[in-house]
Amino acid sequence: MKLIIDTDPGIDDAMAIAYAAAAPELELVGLTTVFGNTHTHQSSRNARYLLHRLGLSVPVAQGARAAWGKAEHNPSSHVHGPEGFGDLVEIPDIGENHATPAAEFLVQMAQEHRDELVICAVGPLTNIADALGLDPEFASNLGRLVIMGGAVFVPGNVSAHAEANIHNDPRAAQAVFQNPPKTVLVGLDATMKTLYQSSDFEALAQHSPDMGGFLRDISEFYLRFYKEVVGVDGCGLHDSTAVIACSHTHMFDLVETGLSVVTDGDRVGATLPDASNPPVQVCRDVDGPAVVELFTRHVASLP
Ligand code: BDR
Ligand code: CA
Asked: Which of 16, 61, 152, 236 is the most exposed place for a label (fewest CB within 10 A)?
């Protein structure tokens, strides 16, 4: 399966990219970047740095800098650190972005690879909504869209109602759910059941001193946030769980429903079942230990 990750790295994004590089069933053919955990230029620099460390030479196409209808974005640096990688603040700027902007790149890749291509969107859905707007055939060309976002049957993480990726661009998310490609939504319903603890990072670093050690180091900041603010011992493998859902669908309990996003008011960013929108597959449960074990097994095989 050919895979593009649309991403805002970001600590759990870095874990997901490492997983995609290690998993034999996935062929990473590019990354597209978006604002969210960081500003977009930081997401792109971090994406290029990760690919360099992983020894992968695939394009990084830079995408949207702000949500639909907004001029700028305020990054989640209290969760992911000032540069997106926790306490690590000097991140080498290696290589260059692809000449084509993210949404156009996604359109072109879907035209070229069609059913074979899966896009895993693990940041705000702005680039995906832009691609849908650029090409009326984008949704039907694409094999599948797997989204890390939303909290359908459980509370949110940035408010009682909303999950961060959807909250960061609710209008773009609504546009995607009104005209979805074949879509699987992996929200907090699943990803808060895939907690990764400090001892898991230590074991990972022992087997994989370079990449595992890097992930352990950058995750200290993230684990502190989870402990002090969320009150949980361990961090959600949010973005990795979505990447795992691209190939290991059997680990997820899926329910089919249309979805709508609240775009204004107190409940902004909420993802609600809505039968008037086309159906998507929503994960309402997951075999958490199986996801954690699979993540560790593959990432531990990296140098
Ligand atoms: C999502 O928000 C971001 O902070 C994470 O990278 C993940 O994609 C979790 O709500
Ligand atoms: Ca992310």
From this structure: 152
| Tokens describing residue 83 | 């540069």
- Is 167 a catalytic site residue? no
The pairing of strands 144-148 and 117-121 is parallel
Q: List the end-to-end C-alpha distance of the chain, in Å, as a whole number.
A: 23
Torsion sign (Cα): 23, 252, 2, 105: negative
Closest approach atom of ligand 1 to CA 76: 4
Distance CA 179, CA 295 (A): 31
Distance of alpha carbon 181 from alpha carbon 183, whole angstroms: 6
The domains of the chain, with CATH numbers, are 2-299 (3.90.245.10)
Is 6 a pocket residue for ligand 1 (Cβ < 6 Å)? no
Q: Which residues contact 13 (CB under 8 A, 6 or more apart)?
A: 5, 7, 37, 122, 123, 239
pLDDT number for residue 163: 98
Establish whether residue 183 lines the binding site of ligand 1, counting it when its CB lies within 6 angstroms of any ligand atom. no
**What number does the ligand 1 atom closest to the CA of 13 have?**
6
pLDDT tens for each residue of 25-38: 999 999 999 999 99
Instruction: Give 192 Cα–ligand 2 centroid separation in angstroms.
Output: 14
In the structure, what pLDDT confidence band is assigned to residue 108 with cuts at 50, 70 and 90? Answer: very high
Q: Which of 80, 98, 161, 238 is catalytic?
A: 238
